[in-house]
Design brief:
Layout lengths: L22 E5 L2 E5 L5 E5 L4 E7 L2 E2 L21 E2 L26 E9 L2 E8 L6 H6 L4 E10 L2 E10 L5 E7 L2 E3 L6 E4 L5 E4 L4 E4 L4 E3 L4 E5 L6 E5 L2 E9 L3 E6 L19 E15 L4 E9 L1
Length: 304
């Protein structure tokens, strides 16, 4: 059941000091969530991009060593948020927007810590037209409201989004969590949960159905799997590393640029593709319509 949460007033970003016992702290546009047991997640206000998730003393997300973290460019790594368009559209209301839309290149408001206990902490971020540049507002002139919630537990990282149409016009959108998972060696990775699912291969421009029970990554992979019914499991050498569970996000994009990462200016090191696999939970294979005053909610949990 969708509940109509209104975006509350932002809190000043100078708030909060770090605590050895966990909690939320804010410094230089970076919000840190941490638990007394040692897990942490860092979220930049720029793009509300999760740039670090540490559990068991290890970083779980891939962040390019050349990633720009100063708000001049979408972050290469972590969890950039894709909205309102996945990829680049050539026509329609999102045609004037850059690839993957504006959510990942705008500065979000910190709405605050919404829940906390010994084993879990949730922090919310908000974005509306007032946070967009004049040019972006012109390019996509809808009255929208986004509330993005990041929840850290001892064994998972959850990302949830609420999209509101606050205007008088229906709009179409895509939404995706562009999650760069860190892996020891992508050549040993197998991905389960995609058997018998139809996908569009963006490398070859073809459509196919996956026959193999597991997808292994031995070259550039860029596939949009539509209507994936269950969770996706990432294994390394047969051992499960991550299980990605989705709610109201029907599609899964699997991306690894392989050696063509050499063509991506902010990708590093040059063999960094070996240490990442993007498993992107999204609603991207078709447009989603949001009528005036309606709300749409979705989420993804990466379980260890
Ligand atoms: O370089 P960007 O805009 O962050 O996109 C990275 C990749 O994102 C993936 O989601 C797309 O399927 C790829 O086609 C794209 O190359």
């Amino acid at each position: 059941m969708v509940h109509e949460r209104k975006k509350p007033a932002p809190i000043p970003v100078s708030a909060g000091g770090a605590s050895a016992h966990g909690g939320m702290s804010v410094e230089d546009g970076r919000v840190k969530l941490s638990l007394p047991s040692g897990e942490s997640a860092d979220v930049l206000l720029y793009g509300a991009t999760v740039v670090s998730w540490i559990a068991g003393g290890e970083e779980k997300l891939f962040l390019s060593e050349k990633a720009c973290l100063d708000g001049t460019k979408a972050v290469r790594g972590g969890i950039p948020l894709v909205f309102p368009v996945f990829g680049k559209s050539t026509d329609g209301p999102t045609a004037a927007l850059a690839q993957h839309g504006f959510a990942r290149i705008c500065k979000w408001e910190l709405l605050g810590k919404t829940s906390e206990n010994e084993s879990s902490i949730q922090v919310d971020f908000g974005l509306g037209p007032e946070n967009l540049t004049v040019d972006l507002r012109k390019a996509w002139p809808y009255a929208f409201g986004l509330i993005y919630s990041v929840t850290l537990t001892r064994t998972s990282l959850e990302t949830k989004i609420l999209v509101r149409n606050e205007g008088n016009e229906t709009f179409d959108f895509n939404l995706l969590f562009h999650t760069y998972l860190r892996v020891p060696n992508v050549g040993n990775v197998s991905i389960e949960g995609l058997k018998d699912i139809a996908y569009r291969c963006k490398v070859t421009g073809t459509e196919a159905v996956q026959e193999m029970p597991e997808l292994s990554i031995q070259q550039e992979v860029d596939r949009v799997y539509a209507d994936v019914p269950g969770s996706v499991v990432v294994k390394s050498g047969g051992t499960p590393l991550y299980r990605v569970e989705r709610s109201n996000l029907e599609d899964v994009v699997v991306w690894n640029p392989w050696e063509s990462c050499a063509n991506i200016a902010d990708f590093g090191p040059s063999d960094g593709y070996k240490n990442m696999i993007c498993i992107e939970a999204g609603a991207v294979s078709k447009w989603h319509k949001l009528e005036p005053q309606n709300v749409w909610e979705a989420g993804a949990i990466v379980h260890l």
